[in-house]
Amino acid sequence: MFHPRHHLRALEHLRMAYGDTIAESELERLAAHCLESTAMFAVEALCLPRLITASTWPRYIRCTNESELIRTMLSGSGCILVTGHYGPFELPGHFLAALGFHAVAVMRPLDNVYLNRYLVHTRKMHGLSLIDKKGAMKSAERVLKEGAALGFVGDQDAGRKGQFVDFFGQSASTYKSIGLLAMSTGRPIAVGYARRIGDRAQYEIGIERMIHPQDWEQQDDPLLWITQAYTQAIENIVRKDPAQYLWIHRRWKSKPRNRTSKNSSETNLLEESQPAVTPSKQEESGGSIG
Q: What one-character DSSP code corresponds to residue 164?
């Protein structure tokens, strides 16, 4: 399933993230576990939608810091749910759908038409609504006004036109649309995660940070502040168990124009497209490996 280059890429990215703060032997171990985690994600993408239901979820999931998100959803105001390429990152959306909430995921279709058709069918059958990445922003405001949790994977490379922020001490191009959507709708952002516990089907789902309109309204550059805030929250999640992060993902592929340092405060305010949440290419959202 994996080529040696995937191990080398994971190792390269781990070195970028941790430098000499972690021993080389530990980086090697993390790179190997990253590939195991990626393989596990492929299995979970097929099985979890059927496994996690309104009656069965307590057997498999424990929740952490979820109360504010649940209150927001019960109020009917809607929110933006952001996660990273970490653990079974589709699980939070399935979990909210299993609880009966209106959960919507922005999806990039897989190249394999038959697998894509199966995944779309199983997700819809289990209550998770999907909107295609192409033109998704036209539907996003409507979905949030309907009180839904609209989910994105927030750590995808956005190219040279993206918003550059700090991720593990490196400038990382990040899509602006999450921040722009939050600013235009006044909806909060919940930065969440799903983490595997042990080697059985046991998971922790939690919220690392809630970001509210009052947090960004007084900032000099609200868009930059929002993007950095949720990116930092994703980094905090990864640091708790880095073996579950998708280190083969090219998070630092793009470099900022006229970069004078690796600090992320430099920005590029050109237009961009929106990120998808499920599934895409393996190094972006867990599909086939390129």
A: E
CB 125 within 8 A of CB 165: no
Q: How far apart are CA 98 and CA 76, in angstroms?
A: 17
Q: How far apart are CA 30 and CA 36, in angstroms?
A: 10
User: Distance between alpha carbon 225 and the CA centroid of its chain, in Å?
Assistant: 18
**Three-class secondary structure of residue 204 per DSSP:** strand
Please write the tens of the pLDDT for every residue from 238-249: 999 999 999 999
**What is the largest distance, in Å, between two alpha-carbon atoms of the chain?**
54
200, burial (CB in 10 Å: exposed 0-12, middle 13-18, buried 19+): exposed
Is 96 within 8 Å of 238 (Cβ atoms)?
no
The separation between CA 64 and the C-alpha centre of its own chain, rounded to angstroms, equals 17
The arrangement of strands across the sheet holding 103-107 comes to 61-64, 203-211, 189-196, 79-83, 149-153, 103-107, 128-132
Distances in whole angstroms, Cα of residue 60 to Cα of each of 83, 86, 198, 231, 247: 20, 18, 12, 28, 26
220, 265 in Cβ contact below 8 A? no
Burial 223-247 (b: 16+ CB within 10 A, else e): bbbbbbbbbbbbbebbeebbbbbbb
**Residue 131, number of CB atoms within 10 A of its CB:** 20
What's the pLDDT score for residue 156? 92
pLDDT digits (tens, 9 = 90+) for 168-178: 999 999 999 99
Per DSSP, which regions of the chain are E strands? 61-64, 79-83, 103-107, 128-132, 149-153, 163-167, 170-174, 189-196, 203-211
- SS3 helix, strand, coil % of the chain, rounded to 5? 45, 20, 40
The structural domains of the chain, with segments of one domain joined by +, span 4-285
The 10 Å Cβ neighbour count of residue 196 is 20
